[in-house]
Each structure stands twice: as structure tokens, then as C-alpha cells.
Specification:
Blueprint: H1 8-13, H2 34-43, H3 46-50, H4 53-66, E1 72-73, E2 89-92, E3 96-99, H5 106-110, H6 123-136, E4 142-147, H7 149-158, H8 166-174, H9 176-200, E5 204-209, H10 217-233, E6 241-245, H11 248-255, E7 262-264, H12 271-278, E8 283-288, H13 297-311, E9 317-321, H14 331-344, H15 346-349
Parallel strand pairs: 1-4, 4-5, 5-6, 6-7, 7-8, 8-9
Antiparallel strand pairs: 2-3
Helix pairs in contact: 4-6, 7-9, 8-9, 9-10, 12-13, 13-14
The protein binds coproporphyrinogen III (CP3).
Coproporphyrinogen III binds next to strand 3.
Length: about 350
């Protein structure tokens, strides 16, 4: 049995007794850390870091060297999966991801040579995971991740991170059959990709459904959650699964019935309201507003205490932000947050 088995983070997921609330931070390795910027400039950009297992491993560990975080997350991106289909991905500074082609028609889809895709195109991710497992040596769990098929499709159909979603929402109306074909393909490759991450050693899997909240309730079930369910039921090992969707509050009526281990909650809702609806069905992760990291210590303490008080249960909570940390945050504020949580959470945990 690995050392991570009884780790605080995994006990919190299983609603077992914990002595304090564990914490990790979405995008914890990233542009708010000067040592990240440094390595990125040397490597020649984000994607060069991701594709170099030694560097990706080093970047993953950077925030753990600075802070007492309770988990590592593989340094990669939800969009690298496009490379399994032969779609070339690049990241343009201050603009975000761009693909060398879009999938907007049956013809585009057929041009992908479906069936020839190869999970080994993503070997760099699996090699990063193996290096990390060795470095972490059972002391901290490692989170691996994918995007939900719906969220990845928004990028592949749009071709970039335009926030209009005109093409994919148009396709949903005019050609839902084509959209389902694309989602089925992305689901198949996601299952292979996530299973290989599991075989390579991740302890926890996370599915980012950043744009699931764009969909109305019945569409959300049909175009996003049904595919997430399929991925969940196809995993080769039963490791904990975290599912994150923005606008969590609006979707909780549906989410409370799905099968998962942890729900990632965004900052637009009181976590206590979510907890009341789900009881002990699964654990919650979140949901501090990233802007709290711009406040002073006493204000930050009040905001952290509010979340713990609202959550109001001794376990089943993993502290996190409600969205990824932004480049404008001073790293000292992250340390402040972790210290505050370590100081005040035990009184909520120990009964
Ligand atoms: O959390 C972590 O530390 C692990 C690494 C990670 C990244 N992206 C690294 C990254 C994870 C888990 C992601 C997930 C991801 N990627 C999501 C879902 C979560 C969310 O943020 O809602 C999405 C939608 C993407 C796609 C993506 N990647 C976009 C739209 C962008 C550009 C916008 C931005 O934030 O820069 C990225 C770039 C990206 N992914 C960076 C990092 C560290 C910034 C790269 C840089 O310029 O240095």
C-alpha cells in the first residue's frame, strides 16, 4: 500500500476524520510564481514546458517547495488531448490556446482519420507523472486531469478561447448529431488518456468542465454530464474523481444526483448551500474567491472562517479557490492563506 493512501487529502475525500482541512490551489504552478516565469522564458513558452517531462516535473513541484500544500497536480493542460487527433495546439502569449484547424463540419471530423489516434502521442504527460511519483515518493498525492468532452469541444470547435461560443452553440441547435459524434470521439480518447494517467501513477483524477454551465439543464445532462458519467464508469481503477464546473450553484439540482467523489465548487455560491443539498453524498472542494488573496490578513481570516463556518461539517472538505489563481497574486498571500487555514480549521475538524 502506498504511503499516500492515508494522506489527509484522501481522508477528507472519503469523509474520514481529519485534523485540519487540506488545501491545494487550482493553477498552483503558474504565472504568479517568478520561478515559473523564469523557467518558461528559458524553455521558450508554456507548451515547451509541458512537453518536457523533466521541466514539467520541476514546475509541478515549485509551489510545493514554497508552500505546505496537500497535493500536487500534474503540470499540463486539458487541451493537449487534441494532439491525439493530430490537431496541433499552440499557446500565444496573452491570447491563449490556438489550434491549427477547427472541427465544425462532418468533413472536418472525417479528416481526422478517426480510429488512428494514439494515446502514445501524449507520452510526455505519462513520463512527467512517472517522474513525479518518484519525486513525491508517496508523501503527497498527485492529481491527474482531463477536460470534460464538452469543455474540450468548445475549444476545438471554436479554434481558440473566444468567449462567444457562437460556433458550438450554433452546432448544438442546427446539427446535434454531429456534436454528439465529436463528443463521443473526445470521450473515447479521454478514457484512454485518463486510464493511462492512472496506470502511470496518479492518485486522484479531476475533470474540468469549465464551460458546462453554458448549457441549460436538459442540454447539460445530454451534452456534458452523460459523457462525464461514461468516463467515470470506464476507469480501470477506482481512484477518487473530482468534477469541477463553474456556476456550480445553478447546476446543483442536477449535480446532487450524479456519481462522483468530490464536487469542485466555484466562488459564486455559498458552499453551505451546496453542502445542505448534498449531505454526505460526496465531498466538496473550494470555494474561496481569488480576489480574497488581495486582502490583508484580518480580512482574509474572516473570509476563510466564513467558508469553514458555512460548510459546517468535520470532514469532506478540501479547501481551494473557486477558479484558477491569477498572475496578479503575490505569492506571499498564498502562504498567508495556507497558514490561516492551518490555524483555524482544526477547531471545525476535531469533534
Ligand atoms: O492547476 C494546475 O496547476 C495544473 C495545470 C493546468 C493548466 N491548465 C496549466 C495552464 C490545468 C489543470 C489547466 C486546466 C485548464 N486549461 C482549463 C480548465 C480550468 C480552468 O481554468 O477553468 C482550461 C479551460 C484550460 C485551457 C487553457 N489553458 C486556457 C484557456 C489557457 C489560456 C488562459 C490562461 O489562463 O492563460 C491556458 C493556459 C495555461 N494552462 C497556463 C497554465 C499554467 C498559462 C500558461 C502561461 O502563459 O504561462
Amino acid at each position: 500500500m502506498s504511503l499516500t493512501h492515508n494522506h489527509l487529502f484522501l481522508r477528507a475525500i472519503k469523509n474520514k476524520p481529519i485534523e485540519r482541512t487540506p488545501i491545494w490551489i487550482m493553477r498552483q504552478a503558474g504565472r504568479y510564481l517568478p520561478e515559473y516565469i523564469n523557467l518558461k522564458n528559458k524553455a521558450g513558452g508554456f507548451i515547451s514546458l509541458v512537453k518536457d517531462p523533466e521541466l514539467a516535473c520541476e514546475i509541478t513541484l515549485q509551489p510545493l517547495k514554497r508552500f505546505s500544500l496537500d497535493s500536487a497536480i500534474v503540470f499540463s493542460d486539458i487541451l493537449v488531448i487534441s494532439e491525439m487527433l493530430g490537431i496541433k495546439l499552440s499557446f500565444i502569449e496573452n491570447k491563449g490556446p490556438v489550434f491549427d484547424r477547427t472541427i465544425r463540419s462532418e468533413k472536418d471530423l472525417n479528416s481526422l482519420n478517426i480510429g488512428a489516434y494514439d494515446v502514445d502521442n501524449l507520452d510526455y504527460v505519462f513520463n512527467t507523472i512517472k517522474l513525479l511519483k518518484n519525486e513525491l515518493n508517496g508523501k503527497k498525492p498527485l492529481i491527474g486531469f482531463i477536460g470534460s468532452p464538452w469543455t474540450v469541444a468548445t475549444y476545438i470547435v471554436e479554434g481558440n478561447s473566444s468567449k462567444q461560443f457562437t460556433n458550438i452553440l450554433g452546432m448544438l441547435k442546427s446539427n446535434p448529431i454531429l456534436l454528439h459524434k465529436i463528443l463521443n470521439l473526445l470521450t473515447d480518447i479521454s478514457i484512454k488518456y485518463l486510464n493511462k494517467q492512472i496506470l502511470s501513477g496518479i492518485d486522484v483524477a479531476m475533470i474540468f468542465d469549465t464551460w458546462g454551465g453554458l448549457l441549460k439543464d436538459d442540454q447539460y445532462q445530454e451534452f456534458s454530464l452523460s459523457y462525464v458519467d461514461k468516463i467515470k464508469s470506464s476507469l480501470i481503477q477506482n481512484i477518487p474523481l473530482i468534477y469541477y464546473v463553474r456556476q456550480t450553484g445553478k447546476k446543483i439540482g442536477i449535480l446532487k444526483n450524479i456519481d462522483l467523489d468530490v464536487l469542485g465548487v466555484d466562488s459564486s455560491v455559498n458552499i453551505g448551500l451546496i453542502k445542505q443539498q448534498i449531505g454526505n453524498k460526496f465531498a466538496l472542494q473550494g470555494n474561496l474567491d481569488v480576489d480574497v488573496l488581495k486582502l490583508d490578513e484580518s480580512q482574509m481570516r474572516l473570509a476563510v472562517d466564513d467558508i469553514l463556518k458555512n460548510y459546517n461539517a468535520p470532514s469532506g472538505h478540501i479547501f481551494n479557490l473557486g477558479a484558477g489563481i491569477t498572475p496578479d497574486i503575490n505569492p506571499d498571500k498564498v502562504k498567508m492563506l495556507i497558514d490561516i487555514l492551518a490555524d483555524i480549521s482544526p477547531k471545525y475538524n476535531v469533534k
